[in-house]
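FAQ: What does the model actually see?

It sees only this:
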Amino acid sequence: MTGPISLTAAGDCFITRRLPEQAPQAAQLKQFLSQADVRFANLEVTAHHREGTPSPVSGGTWAMAAPDVLDDIAYYGFNLLNGATNHALDYLYGGLEATERYVRERGFKYAGTGAHLADASAPAYLETANGRVAMIACTSTFHDSWTAGEQGRDLPGRPGVNPLRYHTVHRVSRADMEALRQIADKTDVNADANLAVKEGFLPPPEGKTLKLGHMAFEEGAPGGTVRYPHAADEHRLMEKVKEAKRQADLVLVSIHSHEMEGEDKARPADFHQEIAHTLVDAGADSIISHGPHILRGIELYKGRPIFYSLGNFIFQNDTVTHLPPDFFQKYQLDERASVADALDVRSDYGRKGLGVNPDVWRSVLPYWEMEQGELTALSLYPIELGYSLPRYRKGWPAFSRDKNTLEHLQALSEPFGTDIIIHPNGTGEVKI
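And it is asked to produce this:
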């Protein structure tokens, strides 16, 4: 290393339009981002010329854009991209493979998906003037069928995402547990699972957990819901961090996670916090999270920054050009309906959804420096994405001097013990 490694990171890039020519706001952001050695972004769309088949399920919107939007991602200066998201297989294997091809043709370092689990979980390495940086990427939000599969001795692996699965257990009182057992005995809610165990298609249940359909309950106090990481996924991620730690000066982990605490989207799920701490303990130097399309708090754990969500950098989910019949059928629209018709109905004609949530349209760009693995500085630069504009124009980022964004982030970060100073020029600084 010849000096401290500087890093910046953007949240979700749900990009579906080309950047306007001679956009001064984009030039300002490009200049800012170019100062950092590491310039991370989360790629929230598949990028291809309809080279995939629409999946029967999607991340909400079937996220597809023409590959040339990647040239605009490159214009901003990003050099490290996450691919493990809840949209990665919106267009199944064809869309996944085409996106990977177009991304790598443009020279991005890219992680989180692959032809099999070994590829999807492998670190991506970025060479910088001040040191080598590794990134491992995963997602906790995805359809079960999208999980990348391991290679067999005589069969190929399955393309997909590097998964961060989790278990959910609902803790209830003894009286509630007995009531649930009675429900299970009096109904056929567990009939399929019970028969599968008898016939050997499922292993017998372990421990004192009661399954009720797809939900698991256990007796305990206090009552509530707890989630914890899937043991195999946790182990694989830890081993990849330990491997990368021996091969690079800094190790980053990208986590795409929509899961929340209760019904509060601004609070990360318990398993998200647990795995972030575990991976820092294993050697990760920064955790960069994204997914819920809003900001979440920042934590400094053992001197390493954990960004629980960086919100959006580019958000244009209302200007996709194509949607499969499944989307139209979901909103009771026939084959004569257009994409604009479907988007109108989904948003109740602009009265609900992400488009009317102001938190979706404000975020921050962090800029931090690490030397010999230690955090030495962390600054925060607010951005806004055009909340008041029509849906076909909003979604491009610009620097903002609105102190409300940083005050909001202060409040979100306070439970983690993080102190954010807001400077008169509208930027923020995390006290190290």
